[in-house]
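It is worth pausing here to work through a concrete case rather than discussing structure prediction in the abstract. The textbook approach is simple: state the sequence, then state the predicted structure, then interpret. We follow exactly that order.
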Amino acid sequence: MLSKNIQKALNEQIAMEGAASQKYLAMACWCDDAALSGCAEFLYAHSEEERMHMLKLVRYMSESGAKPITPAIAQPQLVYNNILDLFETAYQNELKVSRAINDLVELCVQEKDKQTENFLQWYVTEQHEEETLYRGLIDRIKLIGTEGRGLYFIDKEVEAIWQEKEKAEADTAA
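Step two, the predicted structure:
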């Protein structure tokens, strides 16, 4: 059985993952409105991925005999100055999620909850991948620039990165 502290922290993480899903959905809508279909598809898929992260936590809690709480989610940011601002905001969100996961793992160590600590290692690895992905996207956006045709090339680059990631995940699953 999960301790009350672990349950509270897991429910907070559920809320954070749900909020991340909504943030990426709002970002995808912004990209659609800006005619950046490659970026939009990337962010729609990322929104689904964050929802899956939330559901994975919900299921873990349920399987452990704890009560997951469906979070209320605040309205995410809807407007960005430009595509670089959008991806920098996404990166900052990923850093925040990483810190929360690390704090949760540390709580598990303190409470000697090896099962939950082991379960969370998947999230630790996932967050490293997310940070690397967004940092790389920001670097490419800065390299390409957002003036003139830069947005077109950014959109195609993000689309290609996402397609490559989906292909790698499909190959791994097979």
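Step three, interpretation. The radius of gyration is 17 Å. Residues 4-173 form a domain with the Ferritin fold (CATH 1.20.1260.10).
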